[in-house]
Amino acid sequence: MTDRALSIAADVEAFVRTVVIPYEKDARARSGHGPSDELVAEMREKAKLAGVLTPHILADGSHLSQRETAIVLIASGFSPLGPLAVNTMAPDEGNMYLLGHVATDEQKARFLTPLIQGSARSAFLMTEPAAEGGAGSDPSMMMTTCRLDGNHWIINGRKRFITGYQGAAVGIVMAKSDDGACMFLVDLPDPAITVETILDTIDSSMPGGHAALRIDNLRVPADQMLGQSGEGFKYAQIRLSPARLSHCMRWLGGCRRAHEIATDYACQREAFGKLLIDHEGVGFMLAENMILLQQCELMIDWCAGVLDSGSLGTAESSMTKVSVSEALMKIADNCVQVMGGDGVTGDTIVEQLFREIRAFRIYDGPTEVHKWSLAKKIKRDYLKG
Fold this sequence. Notes:
385 residues; alpha+beta
């Protein structure tokens, strides 16, 4: 690991522990639809002054390697508010990565720069209502359409589970043309995009929550298409493999924090004449956590190395997402169990982290979809001999 990454990660962790964690009790952080934009702006101003805003992107616009990014994002995840404060949160982090690889210089200046500066949030409009047969885990089912009209594209459709749309200034909209899937950069809000509802979900860490949207004759200038018509699925893969891994990084940091809290509880609380940690039923859960935390770190580092080699890492990111999300779920559950009644209250962050990790097992591809994809690869490789 590089000295620069170790230094950045140490600064980020110190900032999150000393400045961000006290905000967890702030009423602005405790909405069911995510922390308020006012709170996010306040924390980001402090992060900027501390020199830890958008720490994974360097001053010259270049990115840390994926292995370097891993230890920085893990450090940012020690609080659910940490990635928001230092600007490493989804969907912005993944959107910044995509624009950095695909956008034109003009598009970067207009749409990417405000995201890197932390002055704007973004949304990725891909997922559609399942009840209408739209795109979800299978993006090839996309029903949102786009057609060229002079020097503009006209987009129509519905979207669902669009994280952070409410309050976002930059949108990446996916739709299908006669050529195939397309991506468009859009200034938000736009009167052609209507918020039908903000969904009530089990997680609550992302500003703006998760929106259901209707798009009616959205007109987008042709020069705001991201890349080429019909190449949208290829660009989605550029974004999704690192984004899956980034989620693993952030929530590993969160589960390390939950483990710290549960350990502190077990080493101070007494029952039946001895500390909880001395009861094997409790101590063994914390020992299991230690093992699983190390396994998660190794999986993340391995997958990051694959991505750094230039591979898309589709299979590797699927394996890592499955392994890490399932392991983190067990860790979070153990922490709740160790703490008993206190583990299911909002008195500590453990209860929220449990909810967040449960949602993580679904977004960016449920475990079962990744296993199905890996099984297809096993068969394909076998038939190749």
